[in-house]
Amino acid sequence: MTERATGEYGTEPFREILMRHGLQLCRDRTTALQVNVGLNCDLSCRHCHLEAGPGRDEMMERVTMDAVIDCARRFRFSSIDITGGAPELVPGIDYLARALAELTPRVVLRSNLIALSRGRGAELCELYRDLKAVLVVSLPATNAAQTEAQRGAGVWERSIAALKMLNGLGYGMEGSSLELDLVSNPAGAFLPASQQQAEKKFRGDLMRKYGISFNALYTFANVPLGRFLSFLERSGNLEGYRSKLAAGFNPCTVEGLMCRTQLSVDWLGRLHDCDFNLAAGLFHGGQLKLISALSELPAPGTPIPVGDHCYACTVGSGFT
Amino acid sequence: METYYDPTDLGKFSEIGKDAPELAAKFFDYYGAVFAEGELTEREKALIALAVAHTVQCPYCIDAYTRACLEKGSSLGEMTEAVHVVTAIRGGASLVHGLQMRKIAEKLSL
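^ Those are the sequences you sent over. The predicted structure of the assembly is below.
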């Protein structure tokens, strides 16, 4: 067997495995914008690649929101995805969501569910409904033990209550145009179930036990960055998890990776190719550029900076 | 300390094909087909395999199917119940043979 160089994963570096397969990770036509409005969150999930939590004060201010809105006006993305942290905790999130909803056919809000059920949550839910925003919410499992192992004590009951409340508003209900999607990340150092099979189980369990319905479920591998990386190190799972991600590299996933068609902007207006590169400190184009200075969308073929964390998006059926 | 069981051997399972490749190929083809989704889901099959792994007390199988069950979306509650099913059947299999014991003993006894 040929000796291969060792990357930060103790395995073949991601950059080299791409080369070995004759692949390059380059941008395609940009159609989506992801807006990370900050790291403040009311949960401290143990798999969070951004280490978001109550102690974080990074939040998007109005001037950056205006730069994002201006960008959306100039380029007309087919989808704009607002994430955090917990977007509900950012003052002015209603201003941003309202403005962006006028500039794209599909505005998506990512939520931890808990922030929707307290503070301004109820008011924001009604706004999202009025804007016909898509809601993408986190629920790792259909049981309390795995959900709370990942997201903290007391989260299970409140997540179920929030899902029922969203169904009550029409989200995720048959015949309704209000889309409610779930995201399930594994509650530990193992890979996710196949999306199709997991969706079937979630749909059955949530309807049978709680009368909850939703539109689609997405399963994603945890990315070894931030708090999840710390967990892997502490628990002695790092080497095994990294090897598993690298061994599962699927070259067919590269063409459909979301970083090829999406731009990601952080709370300070800095551009990245995805939220994981944001967490890893990798800038779009390899250098700091602000959204306010974006005069044109990235040309197809522009290289995307990669790191060994990219293995998490190319394992199995991939992160698209 | 050396032991008969080495966890890294699990990843080398395919090496069993050395010197008898055709038989190994048939086995692994069959194995793959058995665990593909059919009337039972892959998740259900992994739970059955986990239970059987405890019956045959194979540490490689317990390792492999604990991971497989988690990756197919099973909860620790479901996995623990599967092991109790094994335990009930194994215990029941012993206990039901008690009828044989009683029948023989009763025939021999005054």
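The radius of gyration of chain A is 19 Å. The first strand of chain A starts at residue 32 and ends at 36.

Shout if you want it in another format.
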